[in-house]
């Protein structure tokens, strides 16, 4: 999950850089209305994808932290080894 999230984040970032580079340094490619609409649509889609990838990373990190704190607390209360793997149970 972590590697695919980073891959999505990097690809969307690279696409945004390429689109902005094309718009800034090749303005003749956006002369027609359809080309401008295409560039704006691709830029918006990549920005939305970047937002989704960042949000997914934050949510995964939050859930891992919650499970780690919960398992550490349960082990502390039961006097067991913190580094030992605990079975995943529903909250």
Can you offer a commentary on this structure?
There is one protein chain. It contains two helices and no strands. By secondary structure, it is an all-alpha fold. The longest helix is centred in the middle third of the chain and has 46 residues, at 33-78. α1 runs antiparallel to α2. Helix content is 77%, strand content 0%. The mean pLDDT is 81. The two termini are 21 Å apart.
Short description:
Helix content is 77%, strand content 0%.
- Determine the N-to-C terminus distance: 21 Å
Anisotropy-based shape: rod-shaped
Q: Beta-strand level of the residues, as a percent range? A: under 5%
| Low-pLDDT segments | none
Give helix % range. Answer: over 70%
**What is the N-to-C succession of helices and strands?**
HH
The count of strands amounts to 0
Rg on CA atoms, Å: 22 Å
Q: Specify the structural class.
A: mainly alpha
Mean pLDDT: 81
Main beta sheet: none
Instruction: Work out the helix count.
Output: 2
Task: Tag the structure with descriptive keywords.
mainly alpha; 91 residues; single chain; 77% helix
């Amino acid at each position: 999950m972590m590697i695919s999230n980073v891959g999505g984040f990097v690809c969307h970032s690279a696409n945004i850089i390429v689109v902005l580079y094309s718009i800034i340094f090749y303005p003749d490619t956006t002369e027609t209305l359809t080309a401008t609409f295409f560039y704006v649509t691709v830029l918006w889609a990549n920005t939305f994808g970047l937002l989704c990838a960042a949000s997914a990373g934050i949510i995964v990190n939050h859930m891992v932290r919650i499970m780690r704190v919960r398992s550490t607390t349960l082990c502390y209360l039961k006097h067991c080894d913190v580094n030992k793997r605990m079975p995943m149970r529903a909250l």
